[in-house]
Amino acid sequence: MTIQLNGLHVEIPENIRNVDDLLKHYQLENRIVIIELNNEIADKSKYTELPIADGDKVEMIHFVGGG
Amino acid sequence: MSTTRYSRQELFPPIGKAGQEKLKNARVLIIGAGALGTSSAEMLVRAGVGRITMVDRDYVEWSNLQRQQLYTEKDVQDKLPKAIAAEKRLREVNSEVVIEGIVADVNGMNIEELVKNQHVILDATDNFETRLVVNDAAVKHEIPFIFGACVASYGMTFPMIPGKTPCLHCLINHLPSQNQTCDTVGVISPIVQLVTAYQVTSALKVLTGNEIVPRLQSFDIWKSEKAEIDVWPLKNKDCPTCGSSSTFPFLAYENQTKAAVLCGRNTVQLRPGFERTITLDQLAIRLKELTSEFIQNPYLLSCTYEEFRLVFFKDGRALIHGTSEIAQAKAIYHRLIG
């Protein structure tokens, strides 16, 4: 399926069903991440319950420490 | 001094002559004099901000010169502390600005003294712990704190305005157990410049009384990717830093990273004040490439990095052999662990 991720159209595998899968796909599951799904911030405790569907608009920001 | 020095900036309507006068009377504190710090400092000094204070615990090394724009080969050869080398260069850039470089390790015990009388604080540190310490002090003393960070080609920024935005602690609710750092995955200088461009713009807006949009932004300059999130919904009314009954936990003595010089062993022991479980397996993946004489067992990980022997324990504790200077030991720890 295709989603709009951080402003870009990206193709992601069909087996990604929810926000938790998406995080794992990008290997960000152990990082501090803030995710906005269709203009609403995703609740961290509900990542597995929030479905990802074709055409969804996702903003995903992970924290880094360097400087 | 020429009256035309700031003319191009004064011609820019949102600043104007009135804004320039405000900048002249402004005081900015920059925490860290690495890549972000040197870039922000040069812009602010050229812009004519009245007083700039920079704090840093490290000294200039060869691997800094690729991106830390205030330093020269001579500074490396002289092993100058960054705060001193930066101060010297910035004075050459603009003698009208009062510049103070402070060689110190920023922590919960000295930060409140440092932020006193400052109008804006710019983040240029290399680790989460110091950022949360500064965030506590910024909220407590009601000073805007412009967060910025980068590694590889990725960077992020967020202008934290006490009372108006969530604080950094609302966004980062715990110290991450492992991070990528510039010393483990590298960094290119264009992302440094992009992050500081946003940070300094936020600082100029705050100092000249312009409205700022409090959004968390991230960019990957290599992939031409950017993201932006309105984080207002993450403001936590029970936040220990900015909530209704705040305790400013990162300013408390018991929560500071404790460092002890082990007598006669040329070793410093560091123990994080906040619980921080380190996954030795994940740390091993990154350190194997960067270090030599690598040994791992279920309890600890030991390796040689530069001229230091490092031992990391699962509970976040570390021994840094080869130095008896606490600031140097902390610098190495944060470089590798973040």
From TrEMBL, chain A:
InterPro entries: Beta-grasp_dom_sf (IPR012675), Mopterin_synth/thiamin_S_b (IPR016155), Thi_S (IPR010035), ThiS/MoaD-like (IPR003749). Transmembrane segments: none annotated. SUPFAM superfamilies: MoaD/ThiS. Signal peptide: none annotated. Pfam families: ThiS. This is Sulfur carrier protein ThiS.
From TrEMBL, chain B:
The keyword Transferase applies. Gene3D superfamilies: NAD(P)-binding Rossmann-like Domain. Keywords: Nucleotidyltransferase, Transferase. It holds the Pfam family ThiF. The keyword Nucleotidyltransferase applies. Transmembrane segments: none annotated. Residues 6-240 form the THIF-type NAD/FAD binding fold domain. One of its GO terms (molecular function) is nucleotidyltransferase activity. It comes from the Bacteria. InterPro entries: ThiF/MoeB/HesA, ThiF_NAD_FAD-bd, Ubiquitin-activating_enz. PANTHER family: ADENYLYLTRANSFERASE AND SULFURTRANSFERASE MOCS3, UBIQUITIN-ACTIVATING ENZYME E1. This is Sulfur carrier protein ThiS adenylyltransferase. The gene is thiF.
